[in-house]
Amino acid sequence: MLIKTKFILKSRRAEGYIDVCILVLCAMLVIALAVRVFPVYIQKQQVDTFAVELIREAEIAGRVGSETSRREQALREKTGLQPTVSWSKTGKIQLNEEVMVTVTYGANIGLFSGFGSFPITLRSDAVGKSEVYWK
After folding, report:
1. Please, what sign has the CA dihedral across residues 17, 23, 29, 31?
2. Whose CB among 125, 126, 130, 135 lies 3.0–4.6 Å from 93's, allowing a Cys bridge?
3. Tens of pLDDT along 89-121?
């Protein structure tokens, strides 16, 4: 009996099956991680676009007010994101004066919903100059 057990333990038969099972398990974990992480990259791109389009609206209008609020609402509906928007100035902005907008959005990144999951803050800043001369 002892000789048979020793022979079975030294045998390399079916070692490839174990290697394939471990490889498939690792591949599935990598794919699961990618499925959870890649949407955050898309959200970051949307937050960047959100900030750039808002600052462009402020540049064209020459003020931070109703025009930028309407554009913000349209972007919220278009992207489905509900970020926090803060401006460096409000009201009229004179020609060539700089204005800055900061857009922040909280996202949850992790492998599974309850396990290994943690919140991150996506932030985007955009700076522009007014194109309107106010008398």
Report:
1. negative
2. 130
3. 999 999 999 999 999 999 988 666 666 678 899
Helix/strand/coil for 133: coil
Q: Could you say which DSSP state residue 135 is in?
A: -
DSSP 47-87: HHHHHHHHHHHHHHHTEESHHHHHHHHHHHHHH----EEEE
Which tens digit of pLDDT belongs to each residue from 41-65? Answer: 999 999 999 999 999 999 999 999 9
Distance CA 129, CA 53 (A): 13
Would you call 132 exposed, middle or buried from its count of C-beta atoms within 10 A (0-12, 13-18, 19+)?
middle
- pTM of the predicted model as reported, rounded to 2 decimal places: 0.77
Strand, coil or helix: 37? helix
